[in-house]
Structure formats: C-alpha cells, structure tokens
Amino acid sequence: MTPDVRDRAGRPHRANSRTGTAVPEAAWDRAVRLIGQAEEIALACHVTPDGDALGSMLAVGFALRSMGKRVVASFGDHHFVVPRLLRFLPGQEMLVPPEDYPAAPSLMMTFDASTFERLGLLRDNTARAREVIVLDHHPSNEGFGTLSLIDSTAAATAMLAEQLIYRLGGRLDRDIATCLYAGLVTDTGSFRHSSTTPAVHQMAGRLVATGLRTDEIARELWDRSPFGYLKVLAAALDRAVLESGLVWTYVTRVDRAAQGLPYAELEGIIDIVRRTDEAEVAVVLKEDDHGHWQVSTRSKGKADVGAVCAALGGGGHHNAAGYTSYDSVEKTMAAFRRELGKV
Ligand SMILES: [Mn+2]
Known about the structure:
Blueprint: H1 5-10, H2 14-19, H3 25-37, E1 40-45, H4 51-66, E2 70-75, E3 107-111, H5 123-128, E4 131-136, E5 147-150, H6 157-167, H7 174-187, H8 198-208, H9 214-222, H10 227-238, E6 241-243, E7 246-251, H11 253-259, H12 269-273, E8 281-287, E9 293-299, H13 305-311, E10 315-316, E11 320-325, H14 329-340
Parallel strand pairs: 1-2, 1-3, 3-4, 4-5, 7-8
Antiparallel strand pairs: 6-7, 8-9, 9-11, 10-11
The chain binds manganese (II) ion (MN).
Manganese (II) ion binds next to loops.
C-alpha cells in the first residue's frame, strides 16, 4: 500500500511534540514525499554498527517494506558481519554485503552516520545516489546528504526513525519496536546518560507497550560475553593508567588473538574504565584488525570529548566520542592530551 503522504504530512503530529525535534517540518515533508515516490530504497548505517545505527535502519526498513517498497540495507565494513551483540535484532534478511549494494541508488537513507567517512565501503554508492536522506543526531554531522533529518537534541537516531515511521503512516509492531528499543537503550546507556529526557522514557513506554522483552534485550546487549573477554578485559585493566583527571588504557590485537576475541567484543571496556572516580575523562585505545587504533573517549560532563575527537579527525557527542589513530599508543595519547588541554 502507498499511503497518501501529503495528507499525513499536513496533519499536526503528536509525535513531534514528544521529541522537541529540531528538524524543520519542510524537511520531514520532503522526506515523506521522496520515500512515497520511490520504488526501491537503499539504507545504510555507519561502519561497525552499534544498536542505534543498525536498529534505526532495520526499523525503518520494516516500515518501508510494509509500504510495499523494495528495501536493501547495509553498512560499509570490509569484513561484513553483524556484531554478535546485535544478532538478535529482527529484519537481518534485509541486509546485503556492500558488494551487492546498488551502485547508484535513486533514493538512499543513512542512519546514525555523522560523516561521509563513516559510510566506509558505501561512500561511492552514496556519492552516486540521486537523493540521500541523512537521519542522525550527532551535533558534528556535516550534512553530507541532499536532505538532512538531523536533531542533535535527540538521544538516539532511533528517535528520528520513530518519527519518520509515524509520518510515513506506519505503526509500531514488535519487530520495529525491538529495533528502535535497541537503539534507544544503547545510546542512552540503559537510560543512564544525561540525554535521557522525558521524551526518551515516553518513547520507551510506547515501544515496551508492543510486548517486547526488555529483559531479553538487556541480556543480549549488556550481560553476555565469551570467556575470552574476561581475560582481555583483565589485561586492559591491568595496564590502565591514571594521570591528573585522565584514565586510559589500550587493548592490542595480540591480546585479542590470544583469546580468539573479535574486535567488536571490546565495545564495553570503556564503560568499566570510565567508572574511575578520580578521572573526569576516560580513554580506551582498541587496536583493530588493520593495526589502527580506534580511540573511545568518555567525559563526565566538564570536558567536551566530542570537540577533542573532532579535532583529531573523529567526532561524537560532548560526553562520548571517538576517532581513529594511525600512530603509536604513545603518540596517540600525546596528541589526545594536547587537544584535551585546549577544551
Ligand atoms: Mn546514535
């Protein structure tokens, strides 16, 4: 079915007041119109997707499919594999590897990708796409698409995805809600971060009302690891350094290889390191499979690590951000300290 999008877009929408969206009405209208006219829509989220990136994308994918659209979805990793933590998400049959992605989509949508670079192997496809709708909540988003649906006050891209689904005339079902909920809990740190507004809890209420299992989702996302993770975590914590308000550590490829642990399993280490009472800022350097350092940073609120990471070629939020470093651990940390001193 093809909903009468103009009619729907013209109506005042209750969901709008819930999120206090910064997206202009005209932008929503244009997105609904572009989607209404498209037969096939190509979705992409950022490389090494997290719950918000993949969850938002798949949720919108479900909604588009129910409108009768052909949907392909992907992310531009060289090693195309859904992170273990996210394999419980429904809708993965929509995923195609980057090599099977349309070379020049007529309509493309990106999810939670703050920069063009974050599209990885799908950058060329994006550059050739006729229209690119960018859904995101990163304040650093450079607006690389032809249409921006960007709201930096939103706690997660999932909040924008929910809005879009309503505006397309879609409704929440359990599959959509599971995907959106994964995005919401991931990006709010289980409703602990300062981004957890009343609108976040209200949205969570709407999602939980579909009957999804919050306990099972929480266990999948937060409460399980292979045994090797404990050993790698122990090595990382053992070499943690505390220096004037900064706590940092690193994890090498060798650490992981000894335990057969994939890179994606390192995601949670920063959440343990950042507990340090004596530190305002936490940093974890994670060596990826190419030998580069993926730098995860967290702030308790005073320091803007988003600005620090942006200065170092990455991006993110005030309290949570990251970048890639091609230097040694020592040089990476020296550069980080230097930039941190400026903010
Ligand atoms: Mn996000």
